[in-house]
TrEMBL record:
Coiled coil: none annotated. It comes from the Eukaryota. The lineage of its organism: Eukaryota, Viridiplantae, Streptophyta, Embryophyta, Tracheophyta. GO terms for molecular function: heme binding; iron ion binding; monooxygenase activity; oxidoreductase activity, acting on paired donors, with incorporation or reduction of molecular oxygen. Gene3D superfamilies: Cytochrome P450. This is Uncharacterized protein. It comes from Oryza sativa subsp. indica (Rice). Belongs to the cytochrome P450 family.
Amino acid sequence: MEAGGRPNVSDFFPVLAAADLQGWRRRLARLFARLHRVFDAEVDARLREHDAGEASKGDFLDVLLGIAARRDDAAELDRDTLRSLFTVCRCFF
C-alpha cells in the first residue's frame, strides 16, 4: 500500500510515465508477483482440500471456485481472472 500511495513523477508529468524514472512500475510488478504467489498457494491448497473430500468452508473463495468449476457458465473464471479479482478486493480490505 505504501508503494502504491507514494507520489510518482508521472503523476505530475504524464509524458514521462513510459520512462518509469523512479522505478515504481518495476517495484510494483515484483510486489504484485509476490502477492499473486500467495493467492495461487491459497487456491491450490483449497483445491487439494476439495480433492481430498474435505467439507466446503462456504466462503468467498469456495463460491468462486465453484463457479470456475462449472463449464456451462458464460463467465469463465480462470486463474488470471481470480488473481485480478483477489488483487482488487485485497486493496479494499
